[in-house]
Design brief:
Layout (H helix, E strand, L loop, with lengths): L4 H14 L20 E4 L12 H10 L3 E2 L2 E4 L5 E3 L11 H4 L14 H4 L30 H15 L4 E2 L2 E2 L4 H13 L9 E4 L2 H13 L5 E6 L1 H7 L1 H4 L5 E4 L6 H9 L3 E7 L4 H13 L4 E4 L2 H12 L7 H20 L2 H6 L6
Parallel strand pairs: 1-2, 1-11, 2-5, 3-6, 7-8, 8-9, 9-10, 10-11
Antiparallel strand pairs: 3-4
Helix pairs in contact: 1-12, 1-13, 2-5, 6-7, 11-12
């Protein structure tokens, strides 16, 4: 697998740290729930770089080294699960051009899968039509994918990279059809209790239903309730722990006290959304949350999340802080160079399939 600069930089930092005297080099003690390194989840794919919820965006995130990719799920008119965030199509697609004759809100639920496949994705926010040194390997890499296509991509890339690529689907709409189809699709694709898999929803009732339904099927997928720190606290963290494995709070208003309380209840904490594109401000933000014990991050710029996570895990203590600071400055400068031009990364990425 091609290693982007961010991964090579992190490797250099780790190598230097581990060659220091034993009294100086050490792995940072993890304050996560299970004492493991925090996970990095590609929020809607590498959505800061390529259009969100596309096979291209998911694949780029995997090439960067993420632990999980996140497809938000909606149902089409003909009962197919597709990966798209909004319940409507206007913000992220050219639906108003292709289906101008239709009046209304262009709801995903009003279109068949075949109709959705005729749409092209827009470039929202900082997303661009391409990324330096990267060529997607999937057909229809920039169209709305089905959940099955996302799973097929994750499983193929798992084989190609030699590491399991986790998936983190969100049930955007509640109801028995969504719940049953999500569980069936996962089971049909061989996902089991030991798989790298979380299912999330803002609806506590949906998570409760999934808990009961999967138990009846002999499944035990990890379940996460989304919300704000306040709304999750109001639900009762101990109560949530009876049917879920974790909580997914917004980083807005999230602090160390909530993370500690969730851990005390036996819950993982995966926070959304880390969206700062500038490493000078993004890296310290990640580090602060990692110091508070955060178990996972949803990031629009997963390469930055990986730099911050790997540096935190391979932390160097105070006597060598100058060295780490020097490496950090070098990393930020190189990331800026990478974004200004693709030439160096084009050569380094020769191993990426065309």
């Amino acid at each position: 697998m091609h290693l982007s600069f961010s991964r090579r930089f992190t490797g250099l930092a780790f190598a230097l740290a581990t060659t220091l005297p034993a009294s100086i080099a050490y792995a940072a003690p993890q304050t996560t729930l299970h004492g493991q390194a925090p996970i990095v989840i590609a929020h809607r794919g590498a959505s800061g770089y390529l259009p969100e919820h596309t096979l291209a965006g998911y694949e780029l995130a995997v090439k960067m080294g993420v632990d999980y990719i996140e497809p938000d799920l909606h149902l089409t008119r003909d009962g197919q699960l597709v990966a798209i965030h909004d319940a409507t199509l206007t913000r992220t697609t050219n639906v108003a051009d292709v289906f101008a004759q239709r009046n209304g809100g262009y709801r995903v639920a009003d279109f068949t899968l075949a109709e959705l496949k005729t749409l092209e994705m827009k470039f929202v926010g900082t997303a661009k039509p391409s990324y330096p040194g990267f060529t997607p390997t999937s057909a229809d890499a920039f169209r709305i994918p089905t959940f099955q296509e996302v799973i097929t991509l994750a499983q193929r890339l798992s084989l190609e990279t030699g590491r399991e690529i986790g998936i983190y689907p969100e049930a955007k709409a509640g109801g028995a059809t969504m719940e049953d189809l999500v569980l069936k699709t996962l089971a049909d694709n061989g996902y089991g209790n030991a798989s790298k898999l979380f299912i999330q929803s803002f609806s506590a009732d949906t998570i409760k239903n999934l808990h009961d339904k999967q138990s009846a099927l002999g499944l035990d997928f990890q379940l996460v309730v989304l919300g704000s720190a306040t709304s999750l606290t109001n639900l009762g963290l101990a109560a949530i722990a009876a049917y879920a494995d974790g909580v997914g709070p917004s980083i807005s208003g999230l602090g160390e006290a909530f993370i500690g309380a969730a851990h005390d209840a036996g819950l993982l904490v995966h926070a959304y959304t880390f969206s700062r594109p500038d490493p000078a401000t993004a890296l310290p933000q990640y580090t602060q949350f990692f110091e508070w014990g955060l178990d996972g991050v949803f990031s629009n710029y997963p390469d930055l999340a990986l730099i911050a996570r790997d540096e935190f895990v391979a932390a160097v203590p105070e006597p060598s802080s100058a060295l780490l600071a020097l490496l950090g400055v070098a990393g930020i400068a190189a990331i800026a160079r990478r974004r200004r031009g693709a030439a160096a990364l084009q050569q380094a990425s020769a191993a990426v399939p065309a």
